[in-house]
Design brief:
Chain A is of the alpha/beta class and 209 residues long. The first copy, chain A, is 42% helix and 17% strand.
Chain lengths: 209, 209
């Protein structure tokens, strides 16, 4: 799945350069992915390029955006305005891809009422109403680990369909709620593992999502 | 790989509770992983529990820490003290797992000299010397996308062995340098994809690393 995002990003760079058709090797090379893998991935989604010509760039971009679900808007709430939450509230990459943060929540009285990037932090007991009113679908969960499960339950009850969980613990939520965990320590452990298993003669890939 | 981190975290929770042996289902259940998968994963690393008894918790914890490379210290540098970098500099989860941030770098004159969590931000031209002197092995790269490749090359030249890359672009580095990309937009797209493919009758997992 991560590769589809990478393909789209690369494809958009080519579209900006004015390319109209693109080969699997053009798409894969800057990403360190073999053209065989690119063809296999895209065939899985029913995209077949023309042999010797390649894919139509605009068509493929359309398809990848639909696969990723970013041919639509995803109103997003951010819960937890600690250091990480504040950084997330200012992160520009989300809106570009149609994930727009439309509401901020925190229970800390020193945070409620503060304004980040034009949005006012509201207490958690307004979460349910606001999520319904604003049609919020996703939530970024950046609260401390000890609070994460409780807040996740409130979010699930409020009708959130997906949670990007930054708290270093697993969440138990109803099956209708999707969760993706972004545990930075786990990512760092993954890096240490790769470093440890890359000797001077080892082969390392610049890509790993 | 991500699962090994999750197993270790769960195992440590059990050790704190005083458990000395642990079954594959005890380990997997809170993580939403089947006991068959747990056994398969651990067998891959040469860990065989006793049928009907399970794994020795302390021994297994030792092995998992060795596999993850966190039975040693990983002095880490943080490059880029924007919003995300500042949040990372204050993140507590890293040091707990022996990833200690020992140096901060930024080229912005308004940032150089500032102190975050007891560390002073230094200009990038000191990077090479400091990395050698302090034995820094890993780097958190939190610079803007446009600067990421240049800084990655400086880090590689300075002898860094691994980069956790937060910039939304791929890095080209020598094979001896490992890279793990943490692109938050990609994670959010992954979440949107999961939500989109989880109907009311869909089956969703709370785990996905």
């Amino acid at each position: 799945m991560g590769r589809v995002s990478l393909y789209l990003r690369q494809l958009e760079a080519y579209l900006d350069q004015g390319l109209t058709t693109i080969s699997s090797s053009q798409l894969g090379k800057p990403l360190g992915i073999t053209d065989a893998q690119v063809r296999k991935d895209l065939a899985f989604f029913g995209q077949f390029g023309c042999p010797g010509i390649g894919y139509r760039a605009d068509e493929l971009s359309e398809t990848l955006r639909r696969i990723l679900g970013i041919d639509r808007d995803w109103p997003t709430a951010l819960v937890g305005l600690g250091h990480l939450g504040q950084a997330l509230s200012r992160y520009r990459g989300f809106a570009n891809r149609r994930f727009q943060i439309v509401a901020l929540f925190d229970n800390d009285p020193s945070k409620v009422g503060q304004v980040y990037d034009g949005l006012e932090v509201r207490p958690l007991d307004e979460l349910c109403t606001t999520i319904a009113q604003r049609g919020v679908l996703l939530a970024l969960l950046a609260v401390p680990a000890a609070a994460a499960q409780d807040v996740a339950e409130v979010l699930a009850a409020a009708g959130i369909t997906g949670i990007l969980n930054f708290a270093p613990r697993s969440l138990v939520v109803p099956a209708r709620v999707s969760v993706v965990n972004v545990d930075l320590s786990v990512q760092l452990e993954h890096l240490a593992y790769k470093v440890q298993n890359t000797g001077p003669s080892g082969v390392s890939s610049a890509l790993s999502s």
